[in-house]
Automatic annotation (TrEMBL), chain B:
<keyword id="KW-0997">Cell inner membrane</keyword>
<keyword id="KW-0472">Membrane</keyword>
<keyword id="KW-0812">Transmembrane</keyword>
<feature type="domain" description="ABC transmembrane type-1">
    <location>
        <begin position="74"/>
        <end position="263"/>
    </location>
</feature>
<feature type="transmembrane region" description="Helical">
    <location>
        <begin position="111"/>
        <end position="131"/>
    </location>
</feature>
<comment type="subunit">
    <text>The complex is composed of two ATP-binding proteins (UgpC), two transmembrane proteins (UgpA and UgpE) and a solute-binding protein (UgpB).</text>
</comment>
<comment type="similarity">
    <text>Belongs to the binding-protein-dependent transport system permease family.</text>
</comment>
<protein>
    <recommendedName>
        <fullName>sn-glycerol-3-phosphate transport system permease protein UgpE</fullName>
    </recommendedName>
</protein>
<dbReference type="GO" id="GO:0005886">
    <property type="term" value="C:plasma membrane"/>
</dbReference>
<keyword id="KW-1003">Cell membrane</keyword>
<keyword id="KW-0813">Transport</keyword>
<comment type="function">
    <text>Part of the ABC transporter complex UgpBAEC involved in sn-glycerol-3-phosphate (G3P) import. Probably responsible for the translocation of the substrate across the membrane.</text>
</comment>
<feature type="transmembrane region" description="Helical">
    <location>
        <begin position="12"/>
        <end position="34"/>
    </location>
</feature>
<dbReference type="Pfam" id="PF00528">
    <property type="entry name" value="BPD_transp_1"/>
</dbReference>
<keyword id="KW-1133">Transmembrane helix</keyword>
<feature type="transmembrane region" description="Helical">
    <location>
        <begin position="143"/>
        <end position="163"/>
    </location>
</feature>
<dbReference type="InterPro" id="IPR000515">
    <property type="entry name" value="MetI-like"/>
</dbReference>
Length: 314, 278
């Protein structure tokens, strides 16, 4: 448009300039199009199947819907219902209990394993692989073994306890016992995931400057002192990262509980995702299910915000 | 010297003993699974445990293929896993190249879209996602699971982080040589990104192969089921056939074991590096 307002005498210069501008603009558009063509295949799939449903989840939490009849606005109904829903309250606390116990337990085991397998020992790669394998092993297969090993009547674990002289009356009922079901599920979780976090810790250990240990040796520090004053502080960022990852994983726990205890006995191992699943795919109460999902979202968000703040500080 | 030498041996003996005991405990469930898979159901719980069955029931490994369509389940799972992994590698590395090496409008906004959802648990939006798929008529199709797993924020993020570490001068030199962006991606970036691609392959393979909740929600027809939910169905149908259940479990584990062992070097490196970057 600006071309037409330029005086006739300047025309050749202006058109040359404008064609330069045009071609630069065209090149810019072209390179943007090329970039978009790179992104499009993934982004379209991502937008439709992830971003869309996420936005929909936030809307759905404030709706009543059974999936077939008309969708109606619910306001805060679903939110208030959370406080009256005993199953939700149980699921919330079970999730917290699972997290509070399994996160430090997994962390401690992973760190212990990493320190043990960071030493130069024969067959180290084999041992590392063995520790890691439960993490990749298919959950259904190992969960069914777990149930058999921890079978209260016939399983080898209770048989060993019996041979050790434990009275059959005091025998833990594991998955079938409301006091032991959570323990059974947590033990499984620790066993399955500690190898993964061990690898992250191994990477952290290899990043520690060996001069720090030499200096500690010169100061006459023993192994324990070196662990407390060199290893633990140096692993700070790794531990923080592992804690965040583990916490988020624990908030999301479902599969292993579905397979080992089905949330029972009673509601003793029912967790948030289990409740989301039941409300959605068993009761078809989609709005309420999404409200529970929002609770899960805010739990994870809180952890992520803490992580973000911490990273900013570093 | 001798005392010092002895001290070292005592310590290393303790280390070896600890490592061996822990490894034994970690692997015990697998040993038990393997051992039970060769037993008659009534012998599975015999105590003390007979680790090596005196009369191995190889028949268990024959029967499982006829009792349930195990072959079909494995085929379904392999199909899904291979398609998802290929799509994931292709589209993620493609998108990651643009995010790492090209300039374009709304680059940061788009990338923020990925970052914002990377920590979002799938369980938060699995219900609306299911409703969407149902709307598209994808309920009870493998396509639903492919769409669900092939385009992840994690994949794009992982690849982008890796591409960022490749010097941009390399791309500029290639541009001067007359390569276009697609050629740079294919001939320079892809060959250089083998470690990242291996990591993503293993993560995607293992997650897809072992996925449970996704197939459970989407696939209700037996002929579409994956090995995980198929195995689960088998367990609830034949709950007392312990020997058979264990044999089927061993079969379900083998593909992951093979992939894991052949790529484990990359896997360990991948976990370690993605862990360090946070």
């Amino acid at each position: 448009m600006s071309n037409s307002t330029i005086a006739a005498g300047d025309a050749p210069v202006a058109s040359r300039r404008s064609s330069k501008v045009l071609s630069r603009r065209r090149r810019k558009i072209q390179s943007a199009l090329v970039a978009y063509s790179f992104i499009a295949p993934n982004f379209l799939g991502f937008a439709v199947f992830t971003l869309g449903p996420i936005l929909f989840a936030f809307v759905l939490a404030f709706m009543h819907w059974d999936g077939s009849n008309a969708i109606t606005f619910a306001g805060l109904d679903n939110f208030w219902r959370l406080f009256e829903d005993k199953v939700f309250i149980a699921a919330f606390w079970n999730t917290i209990i699972y997290t509070v116990v399994s996160v430090p337990a997994t962390l401690a085991c992973a760190l212990g394993l990493a320190i043990l397998l960071n030493q130069k020992i024969f067959g180290r790669d084999f041992f590392r692989t063995a520790m890691f394998f439960p993490y990749v092993a298919s959950l259904v297969a190992v969960a069914v073994v777990w149930n058999m090993i921890f079978n209260p009547e016939m399983g080898p674990v209770n048989m060993i306890l019996y041979t050790l002289g434990l009275d059959p009356k005091d025998m833990p009922g594991w998955a079938a016992d409301r006091h032991w079901a959570m323990v059974t599920v947590i033990l499984f979780g620790v066993w399955k995931s500690m190898g993964y976090y061990m690898v992250i810790y191994l990477a952290g250990l290899q990043g520690i400057n060996s001069e720090l240990y030499e200096a500690a040796d010169l100061d006459g520090a023993n192994a324990w002192q070196k662990f407390v004053y060199v290893t633990v502080p140096q692993l700070g960022p790794t531990t923080f990262f592992v804690t965040v990852m583990l916490t988020i994983q624990s908030f999301k726990v479902f599969d292993q509980i579905y397979m080992i205890t089905q949330g029972g006995p009673g509601t003793s191992t029912l967790v948030l995702v289990y409740h989301i699943y039941n409300e959605a795919f068993i009761s078809w109460d989609l709005g309420y299910s999404s409200m529970i999902a929002l609770v899960l979202f805010f739990l994870v968000l809180a952890v992520t915000v803490v992580q973000f703040r911490r990273q900013k500080e570093d | 010297m001798k005392i010092a030498g002895r001290k070292v041996t005592a310590k290393s003996i303790a280390v070896y003993a600890t490592v061996i005991v822990i490894t034994a405990v970690m692997l015990m469930p697998f040993a038990w699974m393997l051992s039970a898979s060769l037993k008659l159901s009534r012998d599975v719980f015999v105590f003390p445990i007979e680790w090596i069955p005196s009369q191995p029931q190889w028949q268990n490994y024959v029967d499982i293929w006829t009792k349930i369509p195990l072959g079909l389940f494995i085929y379904n799972t392999s199909k899904l896993t291979i398609i998802v992994t290929l799509l994931q590698l292709l589209t993620s590395s493609f998108a990651a190249y643009a995010f790492a090496k090209l300039d374009f409008p709304y680059k940061n906004t788009l990338f923020l879209g990925y970052i914002a959802t990377i920590a979002m648990p799938w369980q938060v939006y699995m219900v609306p996602q299911f409703l969407l798929m149902r709307e598209f008529g994808l309920n009870n199709t493998h396509l639903a699971l492919i769409c669900l797993q092939a385009f992840t924020a994690f994949g794009v993020f992982l690849m982008r982080q890796f591409y960022m570490s490749i010097p941009t001068e390399l791309c500029e030199a290639a541009r001067i040589d007359g390569m276009n962006e697609y050629q740079i991606w294919a001939r320079i970036m892809l060959p250089l990104s083998k470690p990242a691609l291996s990591t993503l392959t293993i993560f995607t393979f293992v997650t897809t192969w072992n996925d449970f909740l996704g197939p459970m929600i989407y696939l209700t027809k037996t002929e579409l089921k994956t090995i995980q939910i198929g195995l689960r169905m088998f367990i609830s149908q034949y709950s007392a056939e312990y020997g058979l259940i264990m044999a089927a479990s061993v079969v379900a584990l083998i593909p992951v074991l093979i992939v894991f062992l052949s790529l484990q070097r990359f896997f360990v490196e991948g976990v370690a590096s993605s862990g360090l970057k946070g």
